[in-house]
């Protein structure tokens, strides 16, 4: 049995503990939702204020030159690159995850179908993040292709000769289950299939090696584990072997080879720059830089490897403490126990029929009761007993700013919420539009 | 002849003069580039700081509910709507101009070709803003359609039975020439053609009446005359008669009918909300709100009609003073003299062969010399004598914060730069990457 004293001892020995000082965390909050919206880097307030008052207010259009606004997407991409196993000039930070997915999936389909015109399927996972499926559905409909959705264990069998692209999210948003990117990419390539990897719950959360895995295309989110701020611009990566083969359909002026020549015809810039489209939100992009700066600060402390070791220790501890201290309350574990299959989150389930008055699972109310105590996680609705997906209590663990005592305290709050029946209070059972 | 004293008298009588107090303008600057990047509303620094430190830093994911982040694109759209002749729930502020053009042009093509499958052309203007042409080029290539580019005087004749969509920018970025939106839309409709209007240089600059003109689709820019900040999110409008007919191809989760049900299949939200895609950059969006707030403050002072009257007075004055005081320096006028054909900018030309050592036009160096004096306009390159487009000195006039004395002083600086030959200095003749 791990004790509070054990947790404090682990914090005292933690070489990554100083990183917490880079963040502004509200008092009284244990934040287990960095997989939804990362916290505020302390440097961001001053950085954003400087962009607003000096770069915009005083320097105005001169900042295109003096503050290098124009290449900010590439500079941030280069700063992010080492943390996802990408090389220099292979990443841009721009637009939203959904828009970037449209770009790379379009390009992947163009390449795959130029090489093998008979390939007319896109394969993805049924429980992939919905916006990924919506974008793929739209593209497939537009081009007369078929979108095939499978369960994780069916992926290998789905890699048939009629498949053009396999599109997966590396770490599942509902369960925290992580795919073997290198193994699946190799299997896809062996079947002549290109891969598109969504790193929304991976970038900054787990070690990623896009080039090592030989992946083809990737996109990801700036406002989750990268702590870039609400709705921060996302990113896109394309393997150099594909980068110059196609232009993507959102062919705007920031992706032009000579944007300031204002020629009427489109000529794509070489490499990843052609994955830019329109003018980017400079203030939000600048905040993202502060999130990336903390990963630079983590590098001399061991970087992503050290962060991963701590993340696994935190999630192992959380699972163990929940099982020890919250037993008998109908909680299950949706996240894999095997380290190789786990992202940086733990998702608990609760069966239907255990909610207030026997309605629903009560998971939503438990999450609300925890939030009222300052333990912020989130709730993801299941299929209400109609299918395999149970209601989920989702907890993200960001080793940049969380410690072992935080985990202890979070579980203690959960235990009290369950043991006392506090979650049954009416105010915790009122559903809000957005959670 | 207008005198400096006349200008001061005009400022003293100007009912819009108090609006200047809403902006933070750098000392010693006469800013004639609000058509490129609008200036900083004073309220924006505090608003952005509050979004960063409180909404993001303290309230974290709770701000999705407490700060209504989720409907910010619609709220800003409703705030903008009256200034472009749009109705409630017809506009969203989101993504970039280029991305929004892709959405509305895609939808317009779907609708036009569903109704008339044989229509296989998109008509636009050869000197439309390049990114508009790039997006149209990409879409046409993807769908096997033809993009036909014409001169302004050829538009009427180009509205033939094989045209699906006419895509125009209302006010030309190079010349400041303004199209007759109502007249051209009526002519297009008479020929069975849908219209897409880019309001990049119109929204906040000239009165626009999208519903009055019966236009079909429109997009525009947040960071020019709307003063939303560098790279501020753009906007999209769709006439209600079209809004529910098609989903646009960037079918992300923010455009879903029930985004928090996380269903695997896409179901577009009713109306303009389906033109949203991914999560938006909240910090940059919030700054845009401060730009729109100033237009609300202008409403009791006469609103867009009063702003338009002052804009025409300022541009009339600039043209008159340049012609009176800068004669003999080879300057021409690219902007129409007729009020009905003029946006809120004045573009001067200079012939080739008048530059340093007889090379080029010297327009770039004149603009640089003006900038060094604090008179900020910009330069747009012509075709170097190869075609009809001369080099352009471009000056935008924003009646929200410019006065008549500013115009006098700007012309006086221009006169001195030309009369003294100051623009010939080497430092003004070195070309930067971005101007």
Gap from first CA to last CA of chain A? 34 Å
* Biggest sheet layout of chain A: 7 strands, mixed
- The overall pLDDT of chain A, averaged over residues, is 96
* Low-confidence spans of chain A: none
Q: Tell me the quaternary state.
A: homodimer
Number of domains of chain A: 2
- Classify the fold: give the CATH topology of the largest domain in chain A: Aspartate Aminotransferase, domain 2
Percentage of residues assigned to helices of chain A: 25-40%
User: For the record, what is the CATH homologous superfamily label of the largest domain in chain A?
Assistant: Type I PLP-dependent aspartate aminotransferase-like (Major domain)
Describe the protein in words:
2 copies of one chain form a homodimer. Chain A is an alpha/beta fold and 435 residues long. Chain A has 2 domains: 4-41 and 302-429, Alpha-Beta Complex (Aspartate Aminotransferase, domain 1); 68-299, 3-Layer(aba) Sandwich (Aspartate Aminotransferase, domain 2), CATH 3.40.640. Chain A is 37% helix and 14% strand. Chain A is built from 14 helices and 15 strands. Chain A has helices at 4-13, 42-58, 63-66, 72-80, 97-115, 130-143, 155-158, 181-190, 210-213, 240-243, 282-298, 303-325, 363-372, 404-419, and strands at 23-24, 30-31, 40-41, 91-94, 121-125, 146-150, 163-169, 194-198, 217-220, 234-238, 331-333, 345-350, 375-376, 378-380, 391-396. Chain A has a 7-stranded mixed beta sheet, with helices on both faces. The two termini of chain A are 34 Å apart. In chain A, 56% of the residues are buried. The model of chain A has no long low-confidence stretch (mean pLDDT 96). At the A-B interface, helix 2, helix 3, helix 5, helix 6 and helix 11 of A face helix 2, helix 3, helix 5, helix 6 and helix 11 of B. Chains A, B: Belongs to the kynureninase family. Chains A, B: InterPro entries: Kynureninase, PyrdxlP-dep_Trfase, PyrdxlP-dep_Trfase_major, PyrdxlP-dep_Trfase_small. Chains A, B: It catalyses: L-kynurenine + H2O = anthranilate + L-alanine + H(+); 3-hydroxy-L-kynurenine + H2O = 3-hydroxyanthranilate + L-alanine + H(+). Chains A, B: This is Kynureninase.
């Amino acid at each position: 049995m791990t004790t509070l004293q054990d947790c404090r001892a682990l914090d005292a020995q933690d070489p990554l503990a100083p990183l917490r000082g880079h963040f502004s965390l509200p008092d009284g909050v244990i934040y287990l939702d960095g997989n939804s919206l990362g916290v505020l880097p302390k440097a961001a307030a001053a950085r954003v204020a400087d962009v607003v008052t000096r770069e915009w207010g005083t320097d105005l259009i001169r900042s295109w030159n003096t503050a290098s606004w124009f290449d900010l997407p590439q500079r941030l991409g280069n700063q992010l690159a080492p943390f996802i196993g990408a090389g220099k000039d292979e990443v841009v930070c721009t637009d939203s995850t959904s828009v970037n997915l449209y770009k790379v999936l379009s390009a992947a389909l163009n390449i795959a179908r130029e090489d093998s015109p008979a390939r007319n399927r896109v394969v993805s996972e049924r429980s992939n993040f919905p916006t990924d499926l919506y974008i793929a559905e739209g593209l497939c409909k537009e081009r007369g292709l078929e979108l095939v959705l499978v369960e994780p264990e069916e992926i290998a069998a789905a890699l048939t000769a009629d498949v053009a692209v396999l599109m997966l999210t590396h770490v599942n948003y509902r369960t925290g289950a992580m795919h073997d990117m290198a193994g699946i990419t190799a299997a896809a390539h062996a079947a002549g299939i290109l891969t598109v990897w969504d790193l929304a719950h991976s970038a900054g959360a787990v070690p990623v090696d896009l080039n090592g895995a030989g992946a083809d295309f990737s996109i990801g989110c700036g406002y989750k584990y990268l702590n870039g701020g609400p709705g921060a611009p996302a990113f896109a990566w394309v393997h150099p072997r594909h980068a110059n083969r196609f232009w993507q359909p959102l062919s705007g002026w920031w992706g032009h080879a000579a944007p300031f020549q204002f020629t009427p015809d489109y000529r794509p810039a070489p490499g990843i720059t052609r994955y830019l489209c329109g003018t980017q939100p400079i203030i939000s992009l600048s905040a993202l830089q502060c999130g990336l700066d903390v990963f630079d600060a983590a590098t001399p402390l061991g970087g992503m490897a050290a962060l991963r070791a701590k993340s696994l220790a935190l999630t192992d501890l959380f699972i163990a403490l929940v099982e020890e201290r919250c037993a008998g309350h109908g909680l299950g574990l949706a996240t894999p126990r095997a380290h190789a299959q786990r992202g940086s989150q733990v998702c608990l389930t609760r069966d239907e029929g255990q909610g207030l008055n026997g309605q629903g699972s009560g998971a939503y109310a438990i999450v609300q009761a925890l939030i009222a105590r300052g333990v912020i996680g989130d709730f993801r609705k299941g299929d209400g007993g109609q299918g395999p997906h149970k209601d989920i209590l989702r907890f993200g663990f960001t080793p940049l700013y969380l410690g072992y005592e935080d985990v202890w305290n979070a579980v203690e709050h959960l235990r009290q919420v369950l043991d006392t029946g506090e979650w049954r209070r009416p105010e915790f059972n009122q559903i809000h539009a957005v959670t």
